[in-house]
Specification:
This protein has about 70 residues and is mostly helical. The protein has three helices and two strands; from the N terminus they run αβαβα. The longest helix has 12 residues.
Length: about 70
């Protein structure tokens, strides 16, 4: 889905806070996509499983998600 798809998904997740599982592994998400997802994922309090493995977000993107 890349960064563009991650941005679109972030907009959808703003209205879908009850999400419990999200698998985004192998989706080509970079640091810009991670930035767009980071804010909204912090608000998904029901989220218990998040898989972002094998993307290309690097340390910068991971830092945004962790921060």
């Amino acid at each position: 889905i890349g960064d563009e798809g991650a941005g679109r998904l972030a907009r959808v997740l703003e209205a879908w806070k009850a999400l419990a599982h999200l698998d985004l592994g192998y989706n080509g998400i970079g640091h810009e996509g991670a930035r767009m997802l980071a804010g909204v994922l912090r608000e998904c309090l029901a989220l218990v499983h998040l898989d972002l493995s094998y993307n290309r977000m690097g340390d910068e993107g991971v830092g945004m998600l962790a921060g």
